[in-house]
Automatic annotation (TrEMBL):
Name by which UniProt lists this protein: Selenocysteine-specific elongation factor
Pfam families assigned to the protein according to its UniProt record, in alphabetical order: Beta-barrel_SelB, GTP_EFTU, GTP_EFTU_D2, WHD_2nd_SelB, WHD_3rd_SelB
Keywords: Cytoplasm, Elongation factor, GTP-binding, Nucleotide-binding, Protein biosynthesis
Predominant location: cytoplasm
Annotated function: Translation factor necessary for the incorporation of selenocysteine into proteins. It probably replaces EF-Tu for the insertion of selenocysteine directed by the UGA codon. SelB binds GTP and GDP.
Subcellular location(s) of the protein: Cytoplasm
SUPFAM superfamilies listed in its UniProt record: EF-Tu/eEF-1alpha/eIF2-gamma C-terminal domain (SSF50465), P-loop containing nucleoside triphosphate hydrolases (SSF52540), Translation proteins (SSF50447), Winged helix' DNA-binding domain (SSF46785)
Any one biological process term the GO annotation gives: selenocysteine incorporation
A molecular function (GO) term: RNA binding
Length: 652
């Protein structure tokens, strides 16, 4: 297989019907771009045509030839996206015509900033007429992206001007900045067909990154999974296709009927299809209508075409020649990125009325005339990556992986990571996952600092309220704190937030419970007096201690003594002083070391106690994995030491 060319370019034609676009393409390339029998029979381009050539500099150029007739503008729009330069074709014997103006307006709305104005059929006019047409054409392009474009007279019949046209095209493409070959390839599909022996093939202009043989892709917005079976450009087989090239992709796992023009091939996770997008929309000065709220339009971007309705966010109407913030609503999803250009047309009678740029490809539903919404859109449109990211975080926490892959505001992974690092370093954001001190990981959560501080304060206030209501409890059960925090999914967001609050020193995680750092259980004087008498009685009868009820000890006080580590409750009504229990445990282990086993009767006799205490204590030792019951005896548990005698219990 041949290697990919170093810097491919795509050039698109534009202009009125019968002004010689296809004839010029054939003269330049030797390839007839009209591939349909109907096109050849009618001598009129109906759908997109494709050809290619090498310029004198060696630049490889793909040519997309578009139909000029007003009935086929929709086909023209499917091919003009992603081109590096435009050839605006004007027939010298007719001069600029209606579709010349509409195609020029489309190029202007799509911001195709480089191109040439080609005057064709010069063999049919004299020099004076050619000068008049040149002057009229220059006036027509004034104020558009092609205002300063060179005018090149040619004749496809005689070949006059073709070398000059190639040289001028070489010069225009020399100013095109190199395309970044990143990890965000997108192929808007403009053709779908079957090749016998190979199966499903799609074509398009590759944007944003390379495609490789064997690469797994998704078909957006449908979500179908496919794999690259073969790659071809200009009839040459490739291992890798570079951004900016016209490429044919042989796909496995999908049928022709599964695909259509307007679908987008991209890696998994790159795009997030949505039925709403936020845009800055400009209406053409000669638009035949003023846009009103809920206006119906036909929406075009890349190779996609969808009917849509418009929510005007900042004004009641958008008159011709003016711009506005608009939320575009679709009946079915569309897959776009921030910065994508688009065209809108009146559905009937069909005519181009405006276009603009996608600012947010996945917005929430907005209410009209809200200053905060308009301010956010202004930031998205003109802000730096850190400003855009901070604005998003101010609406709530975001998992870092949801910001990557180009699905968020069109930012690259490096831009997201650098922006997050800057926000954290400047104290404007907090990363939850590594204590906020490390580079972002996909599973980390990013918070705007005010939002994090509010959450942290809410967690602290919830725990403090529990301490006030339950002063004899060691802390708030962790699951209860999780429930009260009302954090959005996923559940581990709570775990990361709690860990960050612990790192910040405002909470203590004791395992089952959470407490404030300064909190300690403290019995009031009356309870303390009763507790002291009870503990003294336990110490006086270490192997047959009195029951709590004998001292009128309530459950909360007993629980507090357990949490303070002063007593160990081994069973219902059986409570030891902590030191007495530890002594019993040690003695039981000594007896097992000596004798190998211990019966209930043996315990009772050795400690001179009753069956009640012997049974409760041995069962507690079993629960703590100090001992293990075998028949009527106890033996030493193999994992002895795993238990933690005297540890506070969960009393939730």
């Amino acid at each position: 297989m041949t290697p990919s060319p170093p810097q491919p370019f795509v050039v698109g034609t534009a202009g009125h019907v019968d002004h010689g676009k296809s004839t010029l393409v054939k003269a330049l390339t030797g390839i007839d771009p009209d591939r349909l029998a109907e096109e050849k029979a009618r001598a009129m381009t109906i759908d997109l045509g494709f050809a290619w050539l090498s310029l004198p500099s060696g630049r490889a150029v793909s040519v997309v030839d578009v139909p000029g007739h007003e009935r086929f503008i929709k086909n023209m729009l499917a091919g003009v996206g992603g081109i590096d330069a435009a050839l605006l074709i004007v027939a010298a014997d007719e001069g600029p015509m209606p579709q010349t103006a509409e195609h020029l307006a489309i190029l202007d709305l799509l911001q195709i900033e480089r191109g040439l104005i080609v005057l064709t059929k010069t063999d049919a006019v004299d020099a004076d007429w050619l000068d008049l047409v040149s002057e009229e054409t220059r006036e027509r392009v004034a104020g558009t992206v092609l205002a300063a474009a060179p005018i090149v007279p040619v004749s496809a019949v005689t070949g006059r001007g073709l070398p000059e046209l190639k040289a001028a095209l070489d010069a225009a493409l020399a100013a095109v900045p190199p395309r970044a070959s990143g990890a965000r390839p997108r192929l808007p599909v403009d053709r779908v067909f079957t090749v016998p022996g190979f199966g499903t093939v799609v074509t398009g202009t590759l944007l944003g990154g390379e495609l490789a043989l064997g690469q797994e892709l998704r078909v957006f917005p449908r979500g179908l999974t496919t794999r690259v079976r073969g790659l071809q450009s200009h009839l040459a087989k490739l291992d890798n296709a570079l951004p900016g090239s016209r490429v044919a992709v042989n796909l496995s796992g999908v049928a022709v009927e599964d695909l259509r023009r307007g679908d987008v091939l991209a890696p998994p996770g790159l795009l997030a299809p949505s039925q709403r997008i936020d845009v800055r929309l400009r209406l053409l000065e000669d638009s035949p209508l003023t846009l009103e709220q809920n206006a119906a339009v036909d929406f075009f971007s890349g190779a996609a075409e969808l009917p849509a309705r418009l929510t005007l966010l900042d004004r009641a109407t958008v008159p011709p020649g003016e711009s506005g913030w608009v939320q575009v609503r679709f009946r079915e999803p569309i897959a776009l990125l921030k910065g994508d250009r688009f065209i809108v047309r009146r559905p009937s009678p069909s005519v181009t009325i405006g276009g603009g740029e996608v600012v947010d490809p996945n917005p929430v539903r907005h209410r009209r005339f809200r200053p905060e919404v308009l301010g956010a859109l202004e930031t998205l449109a003109a802000g730096s990556p850190d400003e855009i990211l901070l604005q998003a975080l101010e609406a709530g926490p975001r998992e870092v992986r949801s910001l990557r892959g180009g699905a968020f505001a069109g930012l690259s992974d490096n831009q997201v990571d650098e922006a997050l690092a800057q926000l954290v370093a400047e104290g404007d954001a907090r990363l939850l996952g590594r204590g906020g001190s490390a580079a972002p990981r996909p599973g980390d959560f990013a918070y705007a600092m005010p939002g994090w501080e509010r959450l942290r304060e809410r967690l602290v206030e919830t725990v403090a309220a529990h301490h006030a209501a339950q002063p004899l409890r060691p802390g708030l059960p962790k699951e209860e704190l999780k429930r009260r925090s009302k954090l959005p999914p996923p559940p581990r967001l709570f775990d990361e937030a709690l860990a960050a609050a612990v790192v910040d020193g405002v909470l203590v995680d004791d395992g089952q419970t959470v407490r404030l750092p300064g909190f300690r259980i403290a019995l009031d004087p009356a309870r303390r007096a009763v507790a002291d008498r009870f503990v003294a009685a336990l110490e006086a009868a270490p192997h047959a201690p009195p029951a709590p009820a004998e001292f009128g000890l309530d459950a909360d006080t007993l629980g507090a003594l357990e949490d303070l580590g002063e007593v160990i409750r081994v069973g219902d009504g059986v409570v030891y002083a902590a030191a007495a229990y530890r002594s019993i445990e040690g003695e039981v282990l000594r007896l097992l070391e000596r004798d190998g086993e211990l019966t209930l009767a043996g315990y009772r006799d050795h400690f001179a106690t009753s069956r009640k205490y012997a049974q409760a204590t041995l069962e507690y030792l079993d629960q703590r994995r100090i001992t293990r019951r075998v028949g009527d005896s106890r033996v030493r548990f193999a994992g002895v030491g795993a238990g933690v005698p005297g540890a506070p219990k969960d009393r939730s």
